[in-house]
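Please go through the sequence and fold tokens given here and tell me how the chain folds. Record follows.
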Amino acid sequence: MARSKATNVGVVSAGVALLASATVAVALPANAAAAGCSVNYAVSSQWQDGFGANVSITNLGDPLSSWTLTWSYGAGQKVTQAWNATVTQSGTAVTAKNVSYNGAIATNGSVSFGFNGSWSGSNPVPTSFAVNGVTCNGGTTPTTPPTGSPTT
């Protein structure tokens, strides 16, 4: 009888440990990562109807193997030429993607690129940026919500 109780306790303990590890695996999926960034956008020069800008992305989250930075212009600016990134624009929405040699950004690492653009009327600096779909706010956020979180 004593052996039976010991066996039951062992089986129950193993079951509890297995359940606890399964819960952790569900709560923290393998592809979960911390994402975060800050962006420095600086107009380096400006002339009638044109400007040059330098952009620096600092990765505050887990290391990145590639990046895509997005922002929108509010005053009709257009990107005309870029270096150290492939920059495209559709209407007011701008997308800058890494090139072959600068896709990886370590945690707390930075990457920079520049471009020339045109403007008319005014040339305000964009107010919101996102890297790989995560808004850059100077902090970090999980890229995968925990299982069981309500989605609203």
Summary: Confidence is low (pLDDT under 50) at residues 11-31, 143-152.
